[in-house]
Amino acid sequence: MSVAAQRLAGRVALVTGAGSGIGRESARRLAAEGASVVVTDVDLARATETAEPLGASALALRLDVTDADDVAAAVARAVQEFGALHVLHANAAIPQPVRPIEELEPEEWRRVLEVNLTGPFLCIRGAVAELRRTKGAVVVTSSVSSMRIRDGISAYTASKAGVNGLVQALAYELAPAGVRVNAVVPGPVETPFLRGMKFAATPEETVAAAEAGIPLGRLVEPASVAAAVAYLASDDARDVTGVLLRIDGGRGL
Asked: Cβ(79)–Cβ(130) under 8 Å?
């Protein structure tokens, strides 16, 4: 990990979906840049695996982002443990079963939208009072699937397109309070999440198909996305809000 100066020294960050993949790398990167990090995941054991190597500057919590009470409790715990909250990385998301619209069950649609879109809404809503106080930053994880369409993932695509709209609406709404709201928009990333999308018969074929559509010819590394999250959370991005920052190897072109 190549890390610049400790841009986030004295800051407190809360990361959702931090038990693996992008969330885990973001928690590591934010901690490496000096932040205290509240590492959350719906699976507490995975959150703990992320947090333990980070030492006393990290706290692992179980968090279901679809539960407003859970969100409120996590924000309160962050403030109790570390004194404030400056950064929210709303990263938690789930894939959908890859299937045509007529085979997609309404409950499957609702669940994807609940986690991937309502989840970030609830997290921002639950953290916004503290972020107003600290003039903090929100970074939401979107997806290049919101911009580059492919068959069989209508719910996932809709959820991430909704994230883009939410980010830009709240960037405008919260700017007068000094709160910045941005999104990272990854292309296919080498994570268990990608393999779970099941675009092909095997995980290996799914990865190969994803790589074939990337002009740079390789999957995005989670660390690359984490570096973008750290930038958007830092004062280096003090004039950046409402941005959908693609990290996709050219996939969205």
From this structure: yes
